[in-house]
Amino acid sequence: LWANTCCSHPLPNEPLSQAIHRRLNEELGMQCDMQPIGTILYNEKVTDDLIEHEFDHLFLGFSDKTPQCHPDEVMDHRWISLNELYHDVEKHPENYSAWFCHILM
Length: 105
Fold this sequence. Notes:
alpha+beta, Nucleoside Triphosphate Pyrophosphohydrolase, two-stranded antiparallel sheet, 3 helices
């Protein structure tokens, strides 16, 4: 499934701003300035045995660097325009994680 670029939970006593940059480096081997763009609360039944109930902080960053994806964290990545992404999620929601559809829409 396709999902958001990077996600995690802060470590105990770790500031959110530090956790964001730690995970960017751990997952994508890169850094960039990040700006908060909001929060989202969702509750989604993913399978009969799994319910996602999360409160997420959303951040946005831009970079012209090529990600150096860590294979234990990232299976694949792709560059896609926002318009193409909206169209693909609308046409093929089964290809995306439940939380990503909530975030995007």
